[in-house]
Amino acid sequence: MSEPHGLDLTADVLIIGGGMAACWAATSAARAGARVVLADKGFVGTSGVTATGGPNHWSVAPDKRAQAVEERHARSFDLAERDWMARIIEETWRALPELTPYYPFDIDGKGGTFYSGVRGPEYMRALRRFAVDRGVTILDHHPALELLQDDDGAIVGAAGHARLDDRDWRVRAPAVILATGGCAFRSGLIGSHGNTGDGLLMAAEAGAVLSGMEFSASYSLSPAWNSTRTLPYFAARFFDAEGQELDVPPPMSGEAAHLKALARAMDAGPVLADLSDAPDLLKQLLRRIQPASLPPFERRGIDLFENRFPIRLFGEGTVRGTGGLQIIDEDCRTSVEGLYAVGDCATRELIAGATSGGGAQNAAWALTSGRVAGKAAALAALRMGKAAPGKAIGRAGLRPAATVRAIDLTPVVPAVQAFTIAFDGTLWRSAAKLEAAQERLDELWRDMADHGHARGLGRVALREQAAMLASARWVGAAALTRDESRGLHMREDRPLVDPAQARRLLTGGLEQVWTRFDHAISQTQLKEVAA
Fold first, then answer.
1. pLDDT (tens digit, 9 = 90+) per residue, 445-454?
2. What integer pLDDT is reported at residue 254 of this predicted model?
3. C-alpha 263 chain-centroid distance
4. What angle do CA 502, 468, 425 make, to 5 degrees?
5. In angstroms, rounded to a whole number, what is the distance separating the alpha carbons of residues 85 and 57?
6. 253 vs 97, more confident
7. Rounded to whole angstroms, how far apart are CA atoms 264 and 268?
8. What is the pLDDT of residues 315-333, one digit of tens each?
9. d(Cα 176, Cα 148) in Å, to the nearest integer?
10. Beta bridge pairs of residue 178
11. Cα gap 367→289, rounded to integer Å
């Protein structure tokens, strides 16, 4: 229903976000019979990190799945669950062929179809058409600002501001799925500008819990002048400015060793990549697999596979890191009634543990969590019927706790990045560094929460600043509490893995951030850790 000064809609399921997980959730909910509204900060089909990449889903033939699960589980640092890993392989295997009418899958060279590897731009366009054909109502350029919560604490919708129409919107729904992606802290990572942790902030305001936020030290290697994609660098050698080859372990030898070696070299001076030894197959397929990788080189007249060029590490935060909203059951529910989380907005510890799932596991997680939550949310909403009345619960940047006044936002992003992206604050964490950074972030947060306020479209930018601040504080609190090094979490003052900390670490809170280790892990996992 269109009103003079706003848009007011009702639905069975509201999905906030517009990437891969959001689209799969929308189609799944619609197929289950729900009326679905999908509201995205950008344009569904082009926004998010998938649209600029070439994801290869973790889709494994039945006879190879047991081995695939064991290999990945061995790299999870005892925080993943085999049942969930097997589940996402099976769901991905069944789901991708459904896109055949919309996406031109390649052949596999054996007379069959190659489903797992897709080209991001075409994939996202296909998912948009797939959703539209199933009756999903899409609201492009409609960033969400806050959730609606009823008197019993259940989520019953969300509200936001339409960028192009410059008017507020509200959608009432008895089930809401957050698919807003992770937080890249404005690092410049390709496709991630809108990934500012919005969903994490909105959920935390409703009382939701997060998990695995300490596992965020993930980086993407790209040419120094432009974030692209990392695939080519598996075949790279690295040199300093004088032409001396650097001793950098290959990526698969261990993420921590590879990242730290590159970071040390970059701190010392320019680092150049050399891909002259790359296999011919990579040269032939790169444009098809990751079409965004080559144009930055071509614009500068650089031959990617012949010329050396300077490189840079772009922070990925929780986009390719592991942390996000805690998932409490097999339907991808959060700890708040009526609220689900999928894709990068949710923790991936269930299937990746303390490490990044890379492209394969991460893509399969986005697909599976979206489909699972979409169906579950639809069935729950159809049972409940119309959403109960609810009130908007957004705080920081929307409803200041004290007097409204102008605040200086210029320190926010630099302070957040020094803590979440800068090498010294992320790859070489220590208690002293974490405590000092937390004190600074808490100070900025108090200023934001007490005084921050904007009108109209300005609220979107202010909420993004608040969400990045909140996300950085959760990362820091979790990193300080996990008194060891494990996977993507590296403590300079605690370099060893502590077997007693093979548990998930929960965090939450806004005014006062809290942490606690989760004892509610699977019985199978408890037996494995004890053994």
1. 999 999 999 9
2. 53
3. 23
4. 60
5. 13
6. 97
7. 6
8. 999 999 999 999 999 999 9
9. 10
10. 16, 341
11. 19
CB proximity list for 224: less than 8 A, separation 6 or greater: 270, 309, 310, 311, 312
Read off the tokens for 235: 């075949």
CA–CA distance, 345 with 319 (Å, rounded to integer): 8
- Per the listing, tokens 């797939």 go with 130
Sole residue written with tokens 């942490």: 515
Dist CA 380 CA 155 (whole Å): 13
Q: Sign of torsion, CA 396 188 515 198? A: positive
**DSSP H helical ranges for 173-316:** 198-205, 255-268, 280-289, 295-299
Torsion angle in degrees (nearest 10) through CA of 459, 463, 465, 469: 160
Write the burial class of residue 62 (CB in 10 Å: 0-12 exposed, 13-18 middle, 19+ buried). exposed
User: Collapsing DSSP states into helix, strand and coil, what is residue 499?
Assistant: helix
What's the chain's average pLDDT?
93
Residue 57 · residue 96 · CB < 8 Å: yes
Q: What pLDDT sits at residue 529?
A: 42
The answer to whether 356 and 14 are in contact (CB under 8 A) is no
Strand-pair partners of 240 = 271
Residue 141 in tokens: 């350029």
| Burial degree of 193 (CB within 10 A; 0-12, 13-18, 19+) | middle
Tell me if 153 sits within 8 A of 468, measured CB to CB.
Answer: no
Predicted pLDDT at 232: 83
H/E element holding 325?
strand 324-325
Structure tokens, 469 = 């601040």
For 31-91, what is the HEC assignment?
HCCCCEEEECCCCCCCCCCHHHCCCECCCCCHHHHHHHHHHHHCCCCCCCCHHHHHHHHHH
Q: Which residue in this structure is represented by tokens 């062929």?
A: 97
Q: Give the tokens for residue 42.
A: 């950008």
